[in-house]
Amino acid sequence: LQFTEEKLGQAEKTELDAHFENLLARADCTKNWTEKILRQTEVLLQPNPSARVEEFLYEKLDRKVPSRVTNGELLAQYMAEAANDFGPGTPYGKTLIKVGETQRRLGAAEREFIRSASINFLTPLRNFLEGDWRTISKERRILQNRRLDLDACKARLKKAKAAEAKAAVTP
């Protein structure tokens, strides 16, 4: 009732401390930017949406995500197979072997980068959103409910004093 009356402009609302309001605004901003950065980093690390969904499901089921071959590693595999077809002794075959080995190392470095970024960057962001932010939201709801209770009590007290004053004036 108090919340509805406040929204309709029929009841007074106790304002929170300006510093506290600033902290709440900063917390909201932090949450919003953290979500955006987390999503975009996930897109950068795994551009394939269906693979991201699959990884999300594995994570929610607490199962290990199957290891994927990176594009660089796949290209290296094709180059090695092509080199064997052309012959490792031919100039084209030698070149394919060298470039394929470089692609394999690049693919392995990409895999390590994705793993490291996931552990060292994405995990703390997720921990904030799933842990700290949930706590902040819960405490904010509790504070809002307490403030509404306080305002409702103030309104009842005001009505009681007004009724008491009216009763004192009229004999």
Automatic annotation (TrEMBL):
The keyword Hydrolase does not apply. InterPro entries: AH/BAR_dom_sf (IPR027267), BAR_dom (IPR004148), Endophilin_SH3RF (IPR050384). Residues 5-171 form the BAR domain. Its main location: cytoplasm. Coiled coil: none annotated. It comes from the Eukaryota. It is found in: Cytoplasm. GO terms for cellular component: cytoplasm; membrane. GO terms for biological process: membrane organization. The keyword Metal-binding does not apply. Keywords: Coiled coil, Cytoplasm. Belongs to the endophilin family. This is SHLB2 protein. The gene is Sh3glb2_1.
